[in-house]
Amino acid sequence: MNAHPGFAGHAPIPACPVCRSGAEPWLSKPGYRLVRCTACGHGYLANPLPRDHVERQYGDAYFNGGGDGYPDYTASGELLRAQGRHLASIVARHAAPGRMADIGAAAGFILKGFEDAGWQGTGIEPNASMRSYGREHLGVDLVAGDAENFAAQHPVDLVAMIQVIGHLHDLDAALRNVAQSLKPGGLCLVDYWDRTSLPARMFGVGWHEISPPSVVHWFGPDDLAAAFARQGLHPIDSGRPKKIVLGSHVASLLKHKLGESRLLSPFAGLTGLIPAKLRLPYPTLDLKWVLFRKEAA
Ligand SMILES: [Zn+2]
User: Fold this and answer.
1) How far is the CA of 91 from the centre of ligand 1 (A)?
2) What separation in Å is there between the alpha carbon of 291 and the centre of ligand 1?
3) How does the average pLDDT of the chain come out, rounded?
4) What pTM value is reported for the model?
5) pLDDT by residue (tens digit) across 173-219?
6) Please, are residues 218 and 208 in contact by the beta-carbon 8 Å criterion?
7) In 3D, which of 26, 54, 53, 51 has the Cα closest to residue 40?
8) What's the CA-to-centroid distance between 36 and ligand 1, angstroms?
9) I need a surface site. Which of 146, 188, 253, 277 has the fewest CB within 10 A?
10) What's the gap in Å between 261 CA and the centre of ligand 1?
11) Which residues, chain by chain, have CB under 5 Å from ion ligand 1?
């Protein structure tokens, strides 16, 4: 009868994946139903996702095709590796290096940064090209999988989810896996784009993170904590990461965003003026990290 039940205005809105309450329409984006939980405020995509969502989203085009992904992921390798070392220094305030799993590791640059800081890790990554690049060029251990289906061979001291949480298509399955992979007292480092931040509230549907169906969850600090609490993990520290990005990545994202707007699309060509190799500090008003600890027993 209806080929796209999720697009129909009157299809029931699925319950909030964090607290199971009802939701109401949130932002208006053609073809998508962006809704907001009336109890915890969690934002999520109410459209049903296809079975092959992960393969479709994280094919090679995501890492090299621009758009809402990356123009050339590996060009940012050294920056990402430095980012890994920076994130490792955050974890070091709470735990000595041990064994870790990095979920959504891509080519393993961030994981390599953790290894520079003394961690021993395995990366979980659905994209085969990224895995082979990382194995060949960085010598990191990368296995096929994603947050929803991975299982650590041995319990780990740390799970890293960097630029991952907004993309999860089955939040419960993913966080259950995280909890089961951790030793008692183990840590999970998560970064996320804060729905309640000033840039998010200012830009509304024009905020760069409103890019379904790649991004399907929009968290604030409270609903993020509630989602982890369901699996027995609780926040022990939080802050804003230092993030440096390449000019080419900023230009590509800007061009994509400007192109989406009828009013601003004539200016998309100006993004060509941003030098590709320029290193830009990303103003991280909307990017946060949280360190969660699993209950001891
Ligand atoms: Zn909720």
Assistant:
1) 29
2) 21
3) 88
4) 0.83
5) 999 999 999 999 999 999 999 999 999 999 999 999 999 999 999 99
6) no
7) 26
8) 8
9) 277
10) 31
11) 16, 18-19, 21, 37, 39-40, 42
